[in-house]
Amino acid sequence: MIIKLIPQGGIGILEVSKRGDVLTINGERFDFRELPEGAVLPASAVDCEFVVGDVARINGELVITLFLPCGPEASEAARFPADIFNPPDGNVSLPQ
How many domains does the chain have? Predict the structure, then answer.
């Protein structure tokens, strides 16, 4: 899994956990296990304000883009976030 982050001010709090290809975003579960290789699911098909790009499976990896809440006091890591590659199952560590 590759989680891409786009910093965005004023959109609340983001908490993400992962179990395989199932993401829980702010307490809501999103199951992407059935997304086949090469398929693209438009962001508009995922009922979550934090999912801002198409969800795709590329070379076996689920790729998803999320808004990352980022205020004026945010660290440089949050303002210019790196992609998160293959996070372990459990809570996903996001830059603050």
Answer: 1
